[in-house]
Amino acid sequence: MPDLRSDAPKKGDWAAQIRSLPRWQGILAVLPLGLLFVGGLIGGLIGGLGLVANLKICRSALAPAWKGLSMVGVIVGTVLTYLLIAAALTAGS
Fold first, then answer.
1. Residue 12 DSSP one-character state
2. pLDDT in tens, 81-90
């Protein structure tokens, strides 16, 4: 049955989904977006994918410790992916 409460976050409302999380999960969820400031468009795209992955982890039925470890793994993965792409682009120049 759909949730008809007005304070329930809508599926496409990213900010409401993040605000509804515990503080530590919200911080870990948005941390990949830091690549936007470092890497511009490419960093923003990779960071956005990391944000989506972390929000899916937050909604999963994992234990909090596993959620935290998984989210940190996504953050490390996004940074490594950005560094590999940046290295490939600079090596090709």
1. T
2. 999 999 999 9
Whole-number Å distance between alpha carbons of 4 and 25: 25
Q: What is the pLDDT of residues 13-40, one digit of tens each?
A: 778 888 888 999 989 989 999 998 988 8
Q: How far apart are the first and last CA of the chain?
A: 55
Q: Cβ(62)–Cβ(18) under 8 Å?
A: no
Question: Which two three-digit tokens encode residue 55?
Answer: 């929000």
Q: Between the CA of residue 92 and those of 22, 71, 88, what are the distances in Å?
A: 43, 32, 6
* Other Cβ atoms closer than 10 A to 88: 9
